[in-house]
Design brief:
Elements (H helix, E strand, L loop, with lengths): L18 H18 L7 H6 L28 H4 L27 E6 L5 E4 H7 L3 E8 L4 E11 H8 L7 E6 L7 H5 L8 E5 H4 L5 E6 L2 E2 L9 E3 L12 E7 L6 H5 L23 E4 L5 E3 L7 H4 L14
The structure holds ligand MTE.
Ligand MTE binds next to loops.
């Protein structure tokens, strides 16, 4: 069966346009797609009918900022950021914020299993209350060449690892997004995608100081479009590694295969560290555009976080570290 593998960002180099032009074109494309592909268009009436219980952790925000993680650029405007997302469970355009309202975030159970002392299941609110949260300003570089800067709130991944008590034989953490076709139109219409969305980290990466599990943004619980109620932020890697709406952490000795690697291994791999000198097979990664501005900047090795992470990759030079 032929597999259609071209995604929104997979434009030939010569078609890549500045953000403002892209936004205009996207508005047109989205309108056209709405006529042609009804199944991907959010059922707004349905989205509005789905109501969540109020977030019982809302009083934890805004969390105290950890000043260690400073930015070299302004925080991206919340409105721009909240309306320019990749969340394929809700469609292939960037305008998924209203479709994502169909995501029901309570009750939400997190499963921890695999090579751990004692597998467990716990509700998101128990998890968030167990571990103190803090705010961190992080950059985010998408493989599509756009970037943003965001005040995430959450807790270090290392704290979840502590809670999970993995066996010494565990080498990786595999993470999984929810699978529920009734609340994710993309899981119905993109039927050739290997749902659910999966991503993984090595144990060294998961316990690196920078790896952050996100429960909030902009001083409040995280918006659905950003992957409520729990997502990953690994800012030295391309954005597709930062899996959204996580329901499962499995500790394993096998390197996990993410959804994009499963779909197109020639272009997307396990490590996916940012490196401006290693182009994507079909476009350069040297420059990025800050969403919501016309500003373009040179992309930095490890997205500028080399001091924290470069040591982890010593001895792995033969691996494909940059896809
Ligand atoms: N997680 C899930 N479950 N589904 C997705 O489609 N997209 C990834 C990542 N995590 C994605 C996901 C990609 S390609 C990027 S760039 C970031 O989420 C986008 O995060 P943002 O929408 O908060 O900017």
């Amino acid at each position: 069966m032929p597999v259609i593998r071209r995604r929104g960002w997979e434009l030939p180099e010569h078609l890549a346009t500045p953000e403002h032009l892209f936004l205009d074109r996207r508005a047109f494309v989205t309108a056209a797609a709405g006529i042609a592909a009804g199944s991907l268009v959010p059922d707004l009436a349905l989205a509005q009918r789905v109501t969540d219980a109020p977030d019982p952790t809302a009083n934890l925000y805004p969390a105290k900022r950890n000043e260690k993680f400073a930015l070299d650029r302004p925080v991206t405007d919340e409105k721009i950021n909240g309306n320019y997302n990749n969340f394929y469970e809700y469609g292939t355009s960037k305008n998924i914020a209203s479709a994502a309202q169909a995501l029901k975030t309570r009750p939400w159970t997190i499963k921890i299993d695999g090579m751990v002392e004692k597998p467990m299941e716990l509700g998101i609110d128990d998890l968030v209350r167990k571990i103190p949260i803090e705010e961190r300003l992080y950059r985010h570089r998408c493989v599509e060449r756009w970037s943003m800067a965001i005040p995430w709130s959450g807790f270090p991944f290392a704290k979840l690892v502590e809670l999970a008590k993995p066996l010494s034989s565990a080498k990786y953490v595999r993470m999984e997004t929810f699978l529920d076709k009734s609340m994710a139109p993309g899981q119905r219409s993109l039927s050739y995608y290997p749902w659910p969305y999966v991503e993984g980290l090595s144990m060294a990466e998961a316990t690196n100081e920078l790896a952050f599990l996100v429960t909030g943004a902009y001083g409040k619980p995280i918006a659905k479009a950003h992957g409520a109620p729990l997502r990953l932020a690994v800012p030295w890697k391309y954005g597709f590694k930062s899996i959204k709406s996580i329901v499962k952490f499995s500790f394993t000795d096998k390197q996990p295969k993410g959804l994009w690697e499963e779909l197109q291994a020639s272009e997307y791999g396990f490590w996916a560290n940012v490196n401006p000198q290693v182009p994507h097979p079909r476009w350069s990664q040297a420059i990025e555009e800050l969403i919501g501005t016309n500003e373009r900047r040179p992309t930095l090795l490890f997205n500028g976080y080399g001091d924290y992470v470069a040591d982890m990759y010593k001895g792995l030079e033969k691996e494909r570290l940059w896809a």
